Amino acid sequence: MEQILANGLYLGAQYALIALGLTLIFSLMNVLNFAHGQMYVMGGFVTYTVVAQFGLPFIVGLLASAVVLAVIGAVCERFLFRTVIKRSKREESTMLLAAGIAFFLDAVILLVFGEKQRGVPKIVDGVFNWDMRLIMPYDRILIGALAIAMVVGFILFMQYSRTGRAMRALAQDRMAAQLMGVDVDRYSMIGFALGAMLAGIVGGLLVTITGINLGMGGPTSVKAFLMIMIGGAGVISGAIAGGFILGMMESIGLTLLAAYGDVTYLAIFATLLVFLAIRPQGLMGKPWG
Amino acid sequence: MTTPKIPNSVPTSFGNSAASRPGSLGPARLAGVAAFLALVFVAVPLGIAASGRWDFYYTLTSVALLSIASAGVWLTFYIGRINIGQGAYALAGGYVSAVLITQVGMSFWLTLPLAGLACAGLAVLIGLPILRLRGVYFAMVTLVLTEVARLSALALPVTNGAKGITSIPLPGELSVLGLTIIPDFATLEDPKLAFYLVAVALMCLSYLALWRIVNSRLGHLCRSLQQNEELAASIGVNTAHLRVLAYAISSFFGGVAGAMFVSISQSIYPSSFQVADSVNFMLNCFLGGLGYVFGPMLGTLLLYFGWDLLFTTGQYQMLIYSSAMIVLMLVLPNGLLSLFDRKGGGK
Amino acid sequence: MQRRTFIATAGLSLAFSLTASVAAWAENATLKIGFVGVTSGPAAAWGISNQRSMETRAAWLNELGGVQIGDTTYNIEIVAFDDQKDPKRAIAGMEKMAQDGIHYVVGPNVDDGAAAVRPVAEQNGIMYFPYAFPKELYTAPASNAILGMVANYQSGPAIYKHLMETKGVKKVAFVAANESDPLSQRDSGVEAAKALGLEVVSDSVTYQVDTTDFTPVLLPVIQSAPDLLVLSGVSPANAPQLIRSARELGYTGLISTETAQDAQVLQEGAGELANGFISVGGASTPELASDAMKEFVERYTAMFGEYNDESNTKVYALEYIIETLKANPAAIDNVEEFKKTMDTFEAANPFMVGDAKLTYVGTSSFGQKRQVSVPLVVNEFQNGAFQTLFVAKVD
Hints:
The complex is a heterotrimer.
Chain A: H1 2-29, H2 36-53, H3 58-87, H4 94-113, E1 127-130, E2 134-137, H5 138-160, H6 162-172, H7 174-179, H8 184-206, H9 217-231, H10 236-256, H11 263-278
Antiparallel strand pairs in A: 1-2
Helix pairs in contact in A: 1-5, 1-8, 1-9, 1-10, 2-3, 2-4, 2-8, 2-9, 3-4, 3-8, 5-6, 6-8, 9-10, 10-11
Chain B: H1 27-51, H2 55-78, H3 86-104, H4 108-130, H5 135-155, E1 174-176, E2 179-182, H6 192-214, H7 217-227, H8 229-234, H9 239-265, H10 275-288, H11 295-309, H12 317-331
Antiparallel strand pairs in B: 1-2
Chain C: H1 3-23, E1 29-37, H2 44-63, E2 67-69, E3 72-82, H3 87-99, E4 104-106, H4 111-124, E5 127-129, H5 152-167, E6 171-177, H6 180-195, E7 199-207, H7 215-223, E8 228-232, H8 239-248, E9 254-256, H9 263-270, E10 278-281, H10 291-304, H11 316-327, H12 335-342, E11 347-348, E12 357-358, E13 360-361, H13 363-366, E14 371-372, E15 376-382, E16 385-392
Parallel strand pairs in C: 1-3, 1-4, 4-5, 6-7, 6-8, 8-9
Antiparallel strand pairs in C: 2-3, 10-15, 11-12, 13-14, 15-16
Helix pairs in contact in C: 2-10, 3-4, 5-6, 8-9
């Protein structure tokens, strides 16, 4: 039991961090960023390159991932999404753009980083073993703690910094924010960069444990969608809740349903459908986000 | 902190082609349809025979079938829902056809409408709860549906699980009162042309049906739904009923396309239609233009053929393909057919 | 591996091979060999290692002046099509090959693709070499597919038997991704294990390929306390993570798989935890590799910047095509001639030391010779490299 909870917590922490970036971008611009998973993969590869090939410390790699992805995010917003949003009649058109960017990043990652699975050596050795009741390698504990710290840091940033306040105002009511003198374009760009950066940081963190490969982008996006559906789209607390809930569901489901084969994810999806039928806006979302 | 914006936007600019014109068949339109039919049934086969590019038959067959599925997605767009789950119905339709052929011994031609109907029935069951969702919630739930379909195909006994269903016989003879309408495909020297003709005929029928729906009372009601559901409901439109109906028709298209694909590949696996397919169906609609009945057909042609033509660029194929997609989006964010949009123009 | 050099080399070599194939040996006729497989997206590694080993070998042969088949000397040209792991695209790829007048195609890489291209291949007279295991592909009435490697239902029993005899394995557990290929391989693995009298303690646990944490997946498997953990059809991306999670959960038994893996990937992803991991490989371990194999690895590395050990098992299909065509030049545009030759064909295996032969086998599995005979080389991972555990023959 302890083991299941610990696994769920660890999974939940990393999921929450992935979902945060997606939900931030969605709340600011109403863009469902299909390329979020690819940004995560990109972040993983950047950290890998810095750490495993240039031989620099892990923290440098993590910073590099954050910077590179923030730049990519800013560029995407400034030159692509902003133009398309201004010119298109239906906001959903950005989905095609986001999918195009996802394909593009996939192609770039394949050409630059190759097709192989990559990973960096463990940053901490050893395994925490409490009487065989709870087994957790130290590096997982470290990464889990780092992820939780980042989530907390992000909440504080959004809550107390000037930029954070501006972005919250923007998310609440774009028009009103603009009338109150918030530079909408500037904060949209910062928000997008921040969202992409979060994806990159998770990629960087996880490359030490799960490694990274080209194919993880699409499925990661889908999982992130799941989380923000559970929690409610465009709500920070919802993304965090969604991440932890999905992590727990996977951990518990995989243990309890192991004997029945492939049904864990079917069960998760079915639960989700029923849940959304009862509460269409997720746990904390406002209706029709 | 959530967004107050409702994704569906400006009602007045929703296309000016079939959508806002009356559903009458004027002479100009008749001529257009005749030209289109002549193109797909006569000019294309002649062109292929002349150029010797026999491989285009399969490419165009694929385009025709994928555009049927995309037409379904377009119809859900029409009631204001983003559907990224058409792959699920294509897979279900494929399995219905495959199971009926291999285990019941039914003729393929009978399984084709049955596959569509089965999917429509399934869509009613699934649609009743999930069609209450809107915007991104509906989009994301449908995205999950494709994965559910794949996992179900792996887990259900009737689908033969991971091993798939293989060695499905080619479509047999279809005859009415002793008169052969479609010959047995197995007796044909090369069934490529036959598959092409069937697929294109199905495509024409589907788009005819779609066009009729859009220009009927049902289409008007759908538009009212797309623009404001609460308002539509308040003036007495049975929105729940309408949504499910549109979704069922949409899934019918998906099922038919899936079944037809199975007859070409003569096999089906849980991975025959994946999340990527569902996303592509949606992208086809966006690319063609959401305001135009024929948008998804054009979008499919461009996206599918585009990839095919880039095959010579080797490892840069994906890079060029995606760059082209992004550029297209920047230049024509409302879809290709918005080029012909005289009234609307840029917002 | 230096990535920058890799990009530079890849770019240069591409430009070079393009110009070279057009200009330098223009006097020779061209023999086109097709490749239809997945070279983008999640499973790109399978197809890319495949395509690159073909391109490496083709460039090498062309550099030597081409291949003489009958009275004509040919340069080999590889025509590659990316099917994106989509069976519908795979059909389109096969149509492209037919259009190009190609009769010999390597691929597709997965079960659904291989099954989907069958009608096209048979209608257009194409022999194809899938890396997919379903028996229907190779048993009559199917006749145009040739299994390009050792199937897991052939290698599995050999590995289990070896481990029973040498390591005293009694209890075995299976884990597979919930996708067609791995699940089919798991089922046939379980069957083989039972036939050998092993006790199967867990065979129902599956995982999503995009799993980022395998601890919850493996927990129930490890609790069933097997002596041998089989990772059925595991992709190179998942293998290191599974190994690492199993070891970190305190599992001390053996771990094996029947698919080919890459040493570098294992080393990066699992480090010393992967020591003792058993997988199937080609003949590139130092004890077995001939000079030709060593040169192949060198050329591959020079051309693409980094070798992929999965290529060891994928170097053979092209060799078989060319050697069989040499044995019967009439087969160059007539696959019926090719099929006739297959029954008696025999040539030396250039990639392995000793007097190993290239022949077609498969009679016991498929009732007809529809499989290339490659040595079943079972490797053990030790400190960043593979060591040969044992070698067996398949029929």
